[in-house]
Amino acid sequence: MNKDLIFLIMEEDSLEKEEIQIIPMIDVMLFLLVFFMLYTINVVPALVQNINVPTSSTVQPAERKEPITIYITSRGEIYYNKDKVSLDGITERLSSLPDKVNQNVIIVSDKEVKMQTVIDVIDAVKKAGISKLGLAGEKK
């Protein structure tokens, strides 16, 4: 009878299905994700921090300049930062800028504008001494 009882207990244990506990596994995965994110955030700047930058008493912070935008409407009207100007007006305004070499100009024209008008504006910008020039467009 003892043997039957032991066999019956073993049989009941083998009938129970083993279940995988998914919640602790999710907790471990989230912990690993957060750990590696924080590790990456802290390690990458540490790789660059070993640079000793020379000092100077005349150092000035670098200024990031916004590009100048020139608009050309479908009627051929030219606007310099929302002010209506002529081709000569573009050259005059751009020539008076203190740091022309590092200035960016973006030309935004209507698709109905004649190509000659766009070329004339490009020439006016280049006459002012600015070579960093871009044309705006939309992706098809």
TrEMBL record:
The lineage of its organism: Bacteria, Pseudomonadati, Aquificota, Aquificia, Aquificales. GO terms for molecular function: transmembrane transporter activity. InterPro entries: ExbD. It is a single-pass membrane protein; Single-pass type II membrane protein. Keywords: Cell membrane, Membrane, Protein transport, Transmembrane, Transmembrane helix, Transport. Pfam families: ExbD. GO terms for biological process: protein transport. It is found in: Cell membrane. The chain crosses the membrane at residues 20-41. Belongs to the ExbD/TolR family. It comes from Sulfurihydrogenibium azorense. One of its GO terms (cellular component) is plasma membrane. This is Biopolymer transporter ExbD.
